[in-house]
């Protein structure tokens, strides 16, 4: 494996000059010298030791991303977008999608083990991650993404407004018995802090409709869980069924769509189905899914920009950025 000394020898410069080229400073290097060094780096296949560089610069250019369920197409897209956008600005991303570490309170995860400059965290509103983060909670610049946090830097999606768009759309299509399928636990539902839940309850209160809420278990496959709920809804007497189902996310909606169809229920003629997230899979159903599309690209860009600001400043008044999701009407409503 080539070393920085090998690169210096091959390009006829000092080790310090090679370091200036690789680290873009602190001293300037003549363009022709820089080109010679970079050619030697490429020819020798030299790869800088990020940890060693970090000790010298007190920066590793490594950030963490704590996120739910990498098996979910939505969260996989968020992770891939953060990695790609981070790479474009010289950041390397360590991803932790192991949710059990954040829920059992007994383990510290990757974010506390790696020498990171900062971290992006997808967390529910009010979720306590102190057990997971450990001492990293006090030393790491952190930007929360997805859900809003009033006391911390965050770039959030306006789930409430997105849900209102979906519910208003269903009402405009004559749907009066709209059900809500959610992965939230009874305790989370009781707290009533999540935007989609609040929007649904407010819609019912405004229209005088009786809330119809069904819990979808967070199994390894939300599609299967949605499939089961779809079958259960189809088995209800016609006068007890909702005439529309607003789903917490698209994976649940995809499963529900399949479950209803298998049971002979027509979508959307008998029951309309609307999801939330905007994953690609929804476009490839037999009938394209109506969904509320989350602005993943903008979310990741604003979060990375804010995190870079915090890494540079290490302080500042917490900022809250809220991005709108957009209803995309398909054939299921």
From TrEMBL:
InterPro entries: HTH_LacI, LacI/GalR-like_sensor, Lambda_DNA-bd_dom_sf, Peripla_BP_I. Coiled coil: none annotated. It comes from the Bacteria. SMART domains: HTH_LACI. One of its GO terms (molecular function) is DNA-binding transcription factor activity. It holds the Pfam family LacI. Transmembrane segments: none annotated. This is LacI family transcriptional regulator.
């Amino acid at each position: 494996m080539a070393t920085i000394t090998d690169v210096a020898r091959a390009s006829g410069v000092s080790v310090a000059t090679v370091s200036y080229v690789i680290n873009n400073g602190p001293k300037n290097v003549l363009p022709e010298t820089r080109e010679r060094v970079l050619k030697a780096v490429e020819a020798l296949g030299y790869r800088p030791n990020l940890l060693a560089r970090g000790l010298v610069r007190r920066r590793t250019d490594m950030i963490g991303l704590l996120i739910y369920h990498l098996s979910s197409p939505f969260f996989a897209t968020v992770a891939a977008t953060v990695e790609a956008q981070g790479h474009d600005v010289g950041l390397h991303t360590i991803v932790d999608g192991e949710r059990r570490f954040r829920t059992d309170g007994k383990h510290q995860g990757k974010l506390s083990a790696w020498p990171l400059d900062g971290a992006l965290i997808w967390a529910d509103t009010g979720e306590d991650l102190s057990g997971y983060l450990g001492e990293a909670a006090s030393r790491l610049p952190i930007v929360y993404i997805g859900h809003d946090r009033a006391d911390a830097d965050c770039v959030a999606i306006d789930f409430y407004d997105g849900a209102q768009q979906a519910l208003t759309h269903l009402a405009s299509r004559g749907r009066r018995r709209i059900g809500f399928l959610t992965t939230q636990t009874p305790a989370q539902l009781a707290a009533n802090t999540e935007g989609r839940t609040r929007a649904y309850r407010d819609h019912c209160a405004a229209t005088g409709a009786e809330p119809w809420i069904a819990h979808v278990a967070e199994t390894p496959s939300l599609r299967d869980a949605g499939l089961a709920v779809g079958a259960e809804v189809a088995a209800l007497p016609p006068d007890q069924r909702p005439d529309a189902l607003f789903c917490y996310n698209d994976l649940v909606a995809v499963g529900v769509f399949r479950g209803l169809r298998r049971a002979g229920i027509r979508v959307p003629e008998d029951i309309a189905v609307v999801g939330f997230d905007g994953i690609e899979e929804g476009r490839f159903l037999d009938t394209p899914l109506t969904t509320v599309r989350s602005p993943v690209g903008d979310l990741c860009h604003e979060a990375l920009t804010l995190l870079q600001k915090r890494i540079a400043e290490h302080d500042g008044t917490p900022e809250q950025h809220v991005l709108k999701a957009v209803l995309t009407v398909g054939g299921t409503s």
